């Protein structure tokens, strides 16, 4: 267990440092938001370019990983969405947010730094695959369901087209496309350019963790206990369990990628969850869920990694 805590503790210490820095006004919150923009628009795209450009395309595209992570995520999204809609009697935008919170990981800001400490360079491939699933499948699904519930006059097709147009302009998607082009073409980036990309990519992990902690300052828990408990439980327990089950049932792949798949699923929901909530008037639920899930994920991530290490169901941890 101590070796697992040695991996996870530094991650959450940096998150705590980000919280302390903003709470103490050492770093103003608007500056922390700018750091988050730097990660999203520059550091993470460069990380994805580096992950793909240095590998043959066959090493990057792992169909079983995509099926396990994507399939597990879609199953949990459906459970959260239909439970909230049919049993808890929530409106469609609220149900969409609950499904999203349970199934959409913070793969870039928390999942990747943990996987990097655990698995080394393989974490970059896992991140690229998770981001492709989340941005090309999960996010459009959430936007279509949520927006169609808010805009009854618009067809789902029009909402979907708008969602994909917005995603096509995302720096993260552009980073994936650039990395795939470089990998497929066999082009080697000029050394000065690659060094710049490498330096920006290396900044993504620690800066992202700092930003997560900074973003928790000022979030408040309000009412909503049943919904909050459902979303947090779904994200931290049900989602990793669903992805683990898919990995276990599907054909074997590299054990390191099996561990990566499960470890990414263990991270709390995406950091922009409250922003999505604001879009539909439910930012209180989303902000509170993010705060609680991020705090509790230290325990759940450490426990899952310890169980994987003890059982060695996918082999010993690296």
Short recap of the structure:
This protein is 80% helix and 0% strand. With 318 residues, the protein is mostly helical.
List the defining traits of the structure above.
Na+/H+ antiporter like fold, 318 residues, globular
Mean pLDDT: 83
Note the run of SSEs as H and E.
HHHHHHHHHHHHHH
CATH topology: Na+/H+ antiporter like fold
Apparent shape: globular
Total helices: the number is 14
Count of the domains = 1
Q: What's the main sheet like?
A: none
| Proportion of residues in β-strands | under 5%
Distance between the termini: 14 Å
Radius of gyration: 19 Å
DSSP summary, beta strand count:
0
Topology:
Layout: H1 2-23, H2 29-53, H3 57-60, H4 63-87, H5 92-103, H6 107-119, H7 122-150, H8 156-168, H9 171-185, H10 191-215, H11 225-249, H12 255-265, H13 273-279, H14 283-311
Helix pairs in contact: 1-10, 1-14, 2-7, 2-9, 2-10, 4-5, 4-7, 4-11, 4-12, 5-7, 5-11, 6-7, 6-10, 6-12, 7-8, 7-12, 11-12, 11-14, 13-14
